[in-house]
Amino acid sequence: MSGAAPWPVELRLRRAARRLEIDFDDGSRFSIPAARLRALTPSAAERGHGGGDGPVPGDFNGVALLGIQPVGAYAVRLVFDDGHDSGFYTWARLHRIGREAAADAA
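The chain above was modelled as a monomer; its predicted structure follows.
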């Protein structure tokens, strides 16, 4: 798999824990808090259509994930209990968010 981006092999929504767990084919496994995912939404509506990669301003500590919806073969749409559901989280983005969450927890 030279040069290929990591591909997800399993996603698990842990509603009570407010986390998304994801395993990738490169052996990496992440448990990402819903609050982090919500703050790092790729949604153009939340980012003012200008992109950006930093967190969206706001306090998302109490937010929970309600669902995961596939978007083609390249991403998922995450549904949050605050009504947000417009960001497409690509596999590469989820892998990066997971790596950063793991590094912050270490």
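The mean pLDDT is 88.
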